[in-house]
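Re: nicotinamide-adenine-dinucleotide structure - here you go.
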Amino acid sequence: MTATESLITSRNPADPSDVLLQIPAPGAFAAVDAVDRARAAQPGWLLDGAAARSAALGEVADAIDAAEAELTALAVREVGKPRAEARAEVVRTAAIWRYYAQAPYEPVGAVHETAVGPGLLLTRRRPHGAAGLITPWNFPFAIPSWKAAPALAAGNAVVLKPAPEATACAGRLGEIIQRALPAGVFTVLPGGATEGNALVSSADVVSFTGSTAVGQAVARAATARGIPVQAEMGGLNAAIVLPDADIEQAATHIAASIAGYAGQKCTATSRVIAVGAALDPLRESLSEALRAVPVGDPSDAATVCGPLINQHARDQVCDAWHGLCALAGGTVPDGPGWYAAPTLVEKVPPGHRLLREEVFGPVAALLPADDLAHAVRIANSVPYGLVTSVHTAGLDTALHGLDRLDTGMIRINAPSTGVDFHLPFGGAKASSHGPREQGRAALEFYTSSRTYTLSPVGTM
Ligand code: NAD
């Protein structure tokens, strides 16, 4: 599952002896070459017009729908995503392309009066050129799509550098996309850090999703080149449970956010903050809900928590819970895959790694809080700021009590995981850099605005 200097290997995390793919890494020059070809193809793609771009994106959506079973099976096998979630991702991916298929018809500017004198002011948004997209393995179809679809809709060409662990998924998605587009407009560039680095050094705009350490380096490199960049990075997300919450429902949502896809989502819950009298019933309900989560083979339709992506990831999870008091889990199920049981720990000492770093596995800490203000302080006490889920029956709490939370997203009586693709997505602090993804925000990111001043002939 790594890209070495020369080889990309992708394995099935449920059965590491099953190698999906082993190919030579193309190297830095291949990235520069792909960007050059994208840049050459982009003006023609823009000139093809809104109808052609809309039709092409719609064709991609239809082709993804038609390949639903095949793509689902591929994501199950390559990144260990449980079948139900993998299928939901494929369905959502088609919906993303269909949503952005309407975007080429959206207005690209506005008309204004001049401040002084006769004339007219116009603004018009233009694509940047060749967009470099760098993506993680955990949403192998949806994340490349929610970057590529708006970039293409706005008239950019795209070079996608997927995570090595998701090379086969990206390759298949790339075939589907390329079939609907003119040559050179969309390219998949397999590889790891070398190719990613080279892409950042050559593209006209960069959109990154992945870990915070890499994302911050990408953001620095792109900013030094003076090109637009956005980086969506890690999370250490809290669920806050108030005493007035429906505790059973909260426990169900939180268990799903801790254990679903083995916690390998930037929006997973890894800290559960119980306010006052919520602590005892929540401890019981959540422990029970986590113990009931179906763990196992991701190709089984009932599985919720499949394997971790690789052995290093599983070692990180075991290291994080080591020596702590486990209310549920804390064990490693048998099997050839890299499994870890959904785990809830309590009495976590201040400064512990679970309270500072993203572990990216099915493990969470239960933390007591005296009141809502205290819970918000605990929630904010980490370097990340992606999403918080809050469980309460109080409208006032939901509307006014959460102003001091410093996450980009707040989800009331809902799991921390799960996002709508037509609204801005992103966080604060070490979770995000630059403009938001998705929805109209994405169309703005992949374009820049030019202002025209039109003065009547003969005016001085
Ligand atoms: P990663 O940072 O290891 O890799 C992400 C991508 O960056 C891969 O394509 C990788 O090959 C590439 N890369 C690595 N080094 C590079 C370099 N020096 N220059 C350019 N590119 C480089 O992350 P991952 O393990 O693939 O994904 C897991 C991480 O992604 C977690 O931290 C998770 O929270 C985060 N994530 C965030 C979001 C979000 O929207 N906030 C969504 C999904 C995943």
